Amino acid sequence: MKSVFAAVLGAGLLVPAASAQAAPPESAVGLNVGTLGVGLAATFDVNRVLNARVLVAGLSIDPDIDYDGEDLEYEGEVDLFSMGALLDYHPFGGGLRLTAGLGHVNNSLEGSATCEETTCELGDSGSQVLLGDRVDADVEFKGTSPYVGIGWGNAVATDGRWTFSLDLGVYFVGSASADVTCSNVAVPANLAACQLAAQAEERELEDDLDNYELYPVLQLGTAYRF
Question: Cα separation of 33 and 39, whole Å?
Fold first, then answer.
């Protein structure tokens, strides 16, 4: 990842400083929407082919999730939040851009489910909870993450005030953390068994999440140049 970032920075800085001083610095602000949520971005030109961009995005939704076809349906909240500092390299001085940078990602999913059958199976572990037992799950993708991507759009181009953009890339978020607990049981004597079932579910969930260390980014946006 460091080599990618260095390549983007080095390629942009190869442009003579005089070209960057040929015109006053340009800046732009914009809105975007996509897998990061709804975001704001500010773009500043460094030279003819290199721009610096800072952004923040987030979203909160309340989905119902049936994890892995199990008997329990989780009701909860998905919170997305990220902020990043990026460099956009425009190799031909136009709209095409190669992007690298760092971002802070804090995405979480919190949900709870209550067993409405005589017994409910948790995942593929074979563990079960009983009628009336409640299970809470909390999944987090959190930390400072490298970003690489490709896109289209130059918010500080001098051929118009308004521009449209597309970003396609990935954050290297690493493994997520998961926490599954029994917060309520219909029969107090079943609490220990419910907690064991929740622990088995937690291990299975973390194993599944190990396959999702990349967070996909697809953002569409528009910006206004000052």
Answer: 6
Can you tell me whether residue 164 is helix, strand or coil? strand
Query: Cβ–Cβ contacts within 10 Å for residue 150, how many?
Result: 12
Residue 180 and residue 113 in contact, taking contact as beta carbons nearer than 8 Å = no
pLDDT at 130: 85
- DSSP structural state of residue 155: T
Q: pLDDT at position 116, please?
A: 86
Q: State how far the Cα of 24 lies from the Cα of 45, in Å rounded to an integer.
A: 10
Q: What's the CA gap between 128 and 199, in Å, rounded?
A: 11
List the chain domain ranges: 2-225
Q: Across the chain, which distance is largest between two alpha carbons, in Å? A: 77
Q: How far apart are CA 184 and CA 199, in angstroms?
A: 15
Which residues of the chain carry a pLDDT beneath 70?
Answer: 1-25, 66-70, 123-126
Pair of tokens at residue 32? 């975007």
Q: What is the CATH number that goes with domain 2-225?
A: 2.40.160.170
